[in-house]
Amino acid sequence: xxxxxxxLMRFLIKGSVAGGAVYLVYxxxxxxxxxxxxxxxxxxGEVVPPAMYQFSQYVCQQTGLQIPQFFLPISFSQLPAPPKxxxxxxxxxxxxxxxxxxxxxxxxxxxxxxxxxxxxYVKARTK
Amino acid sequence: xxxxxxxxxxxxxxxxxxxxIGTGFGLGIVFSLTFFKRRMWPLAFGSGMGLGMAYSNxxxxxxxxxxxxxxxEQEQ
Lengths: 127, 76
What we know:
The complex is a heterodimer of chains A (127) and B (76).
Chain A (H helix, E strand, L loop, with lengths): L1 H26 L6 H30 L25 H38 L1
Chain B lengths: L2 H32 L6 H23 L13
């Protein structure tokens, strides 16, 4: 009897956890149109770093591991600003493409120049 | 389609792919831990579903300006 109740409780807990996850995905429209996903990612980028920073500061305060100015009262307004995550994909992709193409275009002349220098060096060493 | 608009579409596609693959992976983890005895296939299934949905969205996004929308009217 107890085992049956316990297995039923376990099933209900697992079902509620899985159902909650599915509901969260449905509510935040994470599997919906691409503009909603982009907005959700942007919102996560704004919310997560300050939350992690405040949590780490809370842990430091509770455990006493790393207090920067313990002779002054610590408040959140005195703490440095949390890092902002901003990765401009378009700019870095374009810059990467231009760097790769310019490297490919100068590669033959550079290879000729380096091989000529290497040959001169070897000739000078063997004299 | 101008280059800036194309770049915006690519950014949206990549962000969408990251969110959908992550969501599928997360749901796969939840279902693997709760119902499927820590097997690996729900993770692969969820990630694959997310990737496919992101690909479909991207494809529709890039093809959207070139699709013609018509309306069928019945003759009276």
